[in-house]
Structures are given as C-alpha cells and as structure tokens.
Amino acid sequence: MRNQQATKLLFEMSRSGRRAHHLPPLPAEGETAASLLPADQLADAPPPLPELAEGDVVRHFVNLSTLNMSVDTHFYPLGSCTMKYNPKRNERMASLPGLVDVHPLQSDRSVPGVLQMLYELQQMIGEIAGLPGVSLQPAAGAHGELTALLVAAAYYRDRGEDQRRYVLTADSAHGTNPASAQMAGFSTRTVKSNAQGLVDLDDLKSKLDDKTAVFMLTNPNTLGLFDSQIKEITDLVHEAGALIYLDGANMNAILGITRPGDFGADLMHFNPHKTFSGPHGGGGPGAGPICVRDFLADYLPGPVVEKVGEEFRTVDPAKTIGRVRSFFGNVGVLARAYIYIRTYGKEGLRRVSEDAVLGANYLLSKVRHILDVPHGDRCMHEFVASAKKLKKEKHLSAMDLAKRLLDFGFHAPTVYFPLVVEEAVMVEPTETESKETLDAFAEALFRITEESGDVVEHAPHSTNISRPDDVIAARKPILRWTEKDK
Amino acid sequence: MNGYLFHTESDRREMLRAIGAESVQEIIDGQVPPAVQMKRPLELPPAADEMTLESELRRLAASNASVSSHVCFMGGGAYDHFIPAVVDEIASRGEYYTSYTPYQAEVSQGNLQVMFEYETLVSQITGLDVSNASLYDGGSAATEAVLMALASVKKRHKVITSDAVHPEYREILEAYLQNIDAELVVVPASESGTSEGILDAIDEQTACVLIQHPNFFGRLEQVRKIADAAHQAGALVIQSFDPISVGLLKRPGDLGVDIAVAEGQCLGNPLQYGGPYLGIMACRQDLMRRMPGRIAGQTTDRRGNRCWVLTLQTREQHIRREKATSNICSNQTLLALRATVYLSLLGPQGLKETAEHCVVKTNQARERFAASERFELVHAGPVFKEFLVRDREGDVQALLEHATDHGVLAGVPVGPMEPKWKDCFLVAVTEKRTEADLDRLMKVLESAPADEANRLAETV
Ligand SMILES: Cc1ncc(COP(=O)(O)O)c(C=O)c1O
Known about the structure:
Chain A: One of its GO terms (cellular component) is cytosol. The complex is a heterodimer of chains A (486) and B (460). Chain A is built from 15 helices and twelve strands.
C-alpha cells in the first residue's frame, strides 16, 4: 500500500513548532550573534523552511525513494548511460574516515594517501586511454569536453593559430558536444553520417580546413558502432592541422581492446560514473577526467598530482588554462573509479568490455526480429533500434514502447537519441545483466508489439502516476511550492 | 576472477550461437581494425579481492589527516559543519543513488519530487523565484551565472568582480572567459576587506557584477548599495552567498540580487577533498529561460494527479545543441538530495541556531587572536564564520604544518592563491567547534617556535 501522507510535499507536512535538529546551548553570558552583526544586515526572520520531526523526514524520503526505478531494483538499459551494477564495496571504501572527511585545502604533506590514490588513478586511466597527460578536475563528461576544448584553444593560441575557430561535431553526437564547443568560444560545423551510420568521409573532407580546431568524435559512436575508417578519419584531421577529441562516453566497449591514443585521438574524457561503475546518483554526481597527448599536457587545468621520489605533490602544469571548478575535483567519484579499476585489474577490464559486447550482440540478435535495427546486425556495447515501422503500422511511437516497458518492470531504453535514427530506441544492456534478464526483456518487447495499440498508447498502467502533461509544465511553469498552494 | 560478471561458460556458448559468432573476438574483429587493437594487456595492477583491497584502502585512508583525526578550523569555501545521521541514511538508499536523470517521469517521481522540493528550499533560502536542480559546485555556478548575465544583457561585455571573491572562483571565471568576447575587471578590496571599489567601476558597458557576501575574508558587503548602483547602470547583480548565513543575514533576493549562487557543500555534504559538491543557483522569474541545468516542475498526469517532470528543456543541450544555455548534462542530484534532507531536518530554527553558533564562536576565536602577541587580525569589523589572520613571524606554511603535526587543521594559507596575502591564513569556526577546541588551537599556534617554523619550511 502506498503511504500517501508521507509523500505529500515537505511544505504541506510542516507544522509550526516541530523540529528535528538541536545544538548545545551557547553560553548564556557573552554577546549574542545578533549583537555581533550590523542591524541592517540582519533578516527579520530565518527563511520559511518547513518544520518537521525527524520521523517525518525519514518516512517521507524513504517512501519517495520507492517511487524510483534504479539499477539496484530494475534492469535499466538506458543507452549511452552505461547503467551497470554499482558495487557496494565502492560505497563503503570511498566513505572511510580519512577519505570522506579530508578538507580540500589541506597541505600535500597531510594527505599522502589521498594523493597516492589520485596519482595512481591518473596513471591507470592514462594507460587505459593511451594518452599520458591526465587531469582529474572536470566534474562530468560535458565539463571534460569543455575543459579539453579550452586546452585545445590555449594550444592554438600558443602556436599563433588563433584562426582555428571551428569545432566539427558529428550529427550523431550527443548534444553536449556542440554545446561545449560553443561555451569554449568556438563555432560549430556538423559532419554527416553515411548510410552505415559512420562518419561520411567526403563530408568531413569538405569541412576540414585551416580554420578547423578540433573534430569531436564518439567512437564507438552513439549507434554502438566502432568506426572502421578510424585511421582515415584521424589522418585527414591531423593533415589539416586539427586535433581529434574523443567523447569517451562509450569506453565500456573497448577497455583493453583498443585505446583512443592508439587510434589517433589527441584529447578525450572518461565518464567514470558510466564506465567505472558510477553510481549515477539520480542525475549525478559524475566526474569527467580528461587525458591528452604529451604536447598538450602543459595546458591542463591544475592541480595535478606528481610523484617526486616517494612523495606526492599537487602542482599546476606550466602553461595551465587555470581551473574549471573549485578544489581538486569530484574525488568521491574518482575514489569509486579507482576501487573499481583495482577490483578488475589488468585482465578483468578487458573481460568487462567483452561481456558488454557479448550481451549487447545477444540482445541485438533477438531484438532484430522484433524491431528494425537500421545500422548493422552486429554492434559493440549498445545498439539503436527504430520504432518507425511500428509507428506507420500501429501508430505506436518509440515513446509508447518505452512507457509500456515500464509496466513489464523494465526501465526504458534511451529514446529519440541519436537524432540520426527515426523513432530511435537505444539499448545498452551492460555486462552486469544475466542472459535470463536479457531474454525476459526481449520477450517483453515482443509481447508489446503484439499487444493492442490502445493498451500501449495509454501505458504505463501500473506505475504510481500515468503520463504527465509536459506541455502544460513548460507553458505554465510551476517550479516551486508556494504558500497559497497549501 | 574478481568483479561483477554474470555469464557462465555455457551462457557464453549459447549467446554466441544465437549471435552466430565463434567468439567475442570475432565480433570485435568485424569492427575494430586489427591495426589499432591492443597487442598486450593493459599495464595495470592485478585484480584485487574485496578483503585485500579494503585493508589497503584503510591503510591509505589512515595516512591522511582529516576532520575526524584533527580539529578543523579550515574553510575557504568548504566547511566542517555537522552532518546528521539521517542525511547519510537517506542518501545511501540504492533507489536514489543508483538511478539516473528522471527521463521516465512515471518511474522517477521520487527523484523528481525531491528536485521540486530542493528547488523550493533554494527559493526559500535565496528569496528568489526560480532555482535549477543543481550545478557542479559553487565556483562553476558563479561562472555559469556570469555567462547567463552576459547572454541576458545584450551588447555589454564587461564583468566586474572584486578580489574579496574566492580566488579559485575568479580563476574559473578567467578560464571560461578566455576565448569569448568579455572583459573581466577585478577591483581590489579596501583596507577593511570589502568591495566598495566596485561602485566606482560600474559603467554603461557593465553587463554584470559578481560579489561574494559574506566574502572570502568572512566580511559583510554592502550588497544592497552595489545592487542599486548596478541596476541604475543597467547591469545585473550576482551574489555568491553562504547558505548557512541566511539563518541570520538577509537573503540575496531581499538585497536586490538578480542571480544567487552558492557552494552547497555546507548543507550536509562531506568534505572529501573537494568534491563532489553542490552548485546552487537561483534567479528572478524573468531570467528563468536563460537558466542553465535541469529544472523539475509540477504538472498533472492523464488521470489528473499532481506529479513532477523535467521541464523547460528547450534551454538544454539535448534539444538545443550549440544554442543551449549551458552544456551541463549530469549534475549533482545526489548532493541536492542531501541538502534537501539537511534543510528539512534543520528547519528555520535549526538554520538560525547553526548560523548563531558560527557567528558567536568565530567572534570568540577572533578575540583570542586579537589578544595574542604573535598574530593580528587583518580586517576590523564584523565577520560571519571566518576571518583573516596575519602571522607576524611570517612563515604561515610552516606554522600550519606545525599545527597539523599537533592535531589541529588551523586554517587555510591564502598565499598560494593570492601572493599579497602570503603571511596570512583564514580561520573558519563552525557550530562543531567547542571552547576546548579554541584553547587547543591557540595553544598549538602559539607554541610554534619561529625558528622551528623556518627550519621546517626548508625541508617541506
Ligand atoms: C555520448 C555522450 N557524450 C557526453 C555525455 C555527457 O556526459 P555527462 O553527463 O557526464 O556530462 C553523455 C552523457 O549522457 C553521452 O552519452
């Protein structure tokens, strides 16, 4: 039974005079806080926060949590997001006193263990990338993209090539790629995909010139395909004097199999919340460490960790772009990545990718008989099906399919991305799902396509709410609770 | 093998048969040109089982000084506030931390309602209309606010700030503005550590003013005055504030500020050497469509039930690509959840009392430093929860190392961030500190022999 009382808004549960938090009394003698501050700076009253008892707060948030699907509770094949199992040991180890409660501005000498871990992580992801210069600072993948583009801009400025004002992005790229380019001060040009879903080489050639700074490439791409023309692509871009950026969102497909540095990338980011087991935190936090070629390492944001003799030190690279956030980085997320990489070790990581590829191809072999998969009958770690035919024949969209899957107890795949596939259904099973789960998912998908359109169109039927009205939400935004709603 | 894999050998055989492949290698070879495939294993440590790895991590962790092994007076944008047990308990529920961005609202009502509650709480502590669902941290949030202002105020490119704003925040701003058409003016703080100089710098080219209040030195700014002057000139005002301070001080919205940003670490989030933290941002209604980041809003479902969705998405990168208001995708939802739990536990009274503890105890610490032979207060006048101290012996780094060796994280050396303050350090005092902690701080600092300090300095 749903507890409706506890899932009212905090503000509706509030009763004047209730409280959950108590501090020891301040000494009765001596000056009061109000007397120590100028009267004109003081508020008449503290903010009108809700007033609740501790039991209220706990029941509220525990009940709300049960309204979420999550990796711990459901298969979550959200393409491009690598929703793999989030190891519990990572949570415990990253929360050890001495790691979780270290102040960011402590001296290097007082945090040798933290610096050792971060130094080793720099080395490890540099090795996985095949790119030796590493900054752990960016807070998420998109932030890594922006940071790397700032590094590229500084490099060109240094070389007197300021005219390189264009960043090329693929039409199949994630929205963060062009958005990051814009934020870094570049203009963007889009490179088309060909019929196979790979980079259209002619289109790429026509857009490369001495104004090109960077080509942002996702490989394996967002269709789950490794671009077999990779050598031609990187040669073309390098011949034009430009750099290759690799969006590393799909690194889960190629750990220990191939390295961005070996296939021609000059800069890249990792998404440790994806590849190195996250967790995703309901939307974040992530991290977005970047790896670059040696000639770009001097421009990285600081601080980075260096080893001098047996000691670890934080230093700023010689020509650093400065910093892109305060303090060192999302160390809590990086610690989990470190623990994850150490757990699998050198052979294990390759096995992770092999199993991710195996699982995705197995599921593809089943889904192919249910939905169109426009690009290839093999894939890397994910694939993109299309509900186009279903739409034509039964007036059911990718969204309808996604919603009905929720009734079968599965989180939906990513839909409507990448943009190059109509009615896209992007499925990434990850290596931490059993064959039985993949079978059950394919079975559910099949049953849905056989169901009456009416049932699917009005799905989901079993969730706490039915489909929300997005149009009204955007047209007449209600973005906070106000007193009059009480 | 260690790890979390599922497939048995017979699973693998069956799966390969269904695919029609001999091996996974065959699938890979079909796509990844052999020339770029690795010919050797990754050079990484061998796999480690849970028991072994945990004992190694425990050793690493134990080698660090921390706020549990030491008494902490460090601040400078990250603070040792108390975190109630309920915050950790709720945030460790897998339904929260192993889910992702609520793309499917029907199975994400928990996260979406928390986001909506968070946004409401942020409105309540800022006195502003609209909050987003989080940004990366306080520093990048300040820069996002500047970018938002530059996009809102047409044809103006000047950004004015002061060196009483956190030096790292200013560094971020500089890095982001490097390649775009904007001019950054940094006004020096006055003798008393405040930013009145901004008033003279504001002109008709000014797009926005970024101030911090309480500022980097803990001092209080004349926000209302600066906001009025900026508005007069047609510029926007951004305030970086301390969420704890509004338990006592006027809120950004009450002072005429257009965009408020903050580091939300202080709201129930652990220090963990700098992150993940929480970037807070709120603004006036009319700036809403320029806001970066996710926003949850209220709507109804097909049956008329109240519910929550991600909204105003036409601002965002997945729809607008290069025309988006920001590139942010993954944000800091879990930290926003922690802040939501924290603020609902504290309530108005708890927030006020926490702020009072900070002010009173900080003042006690100031009196101790003012009375000491060796130290002097750099700025006169009221502060909120931290203040700048000058060491007359001058060797701050060695002094602070001495204190660390004696169990006290005595403060933040500001020299590395701002050379002109090389003989100074910031001391922060939260509600957690006691009379005995203060005794210990002074005893340890005053016992640091100047000559030992110098000797130490040479070896560090
Ligand atoms: C292909 C791709 N690139 C970039 C990103 C951005 O990463 P983050 O969300 O960590 O900023 C994502 C995340 O969804 C992605 O799927």
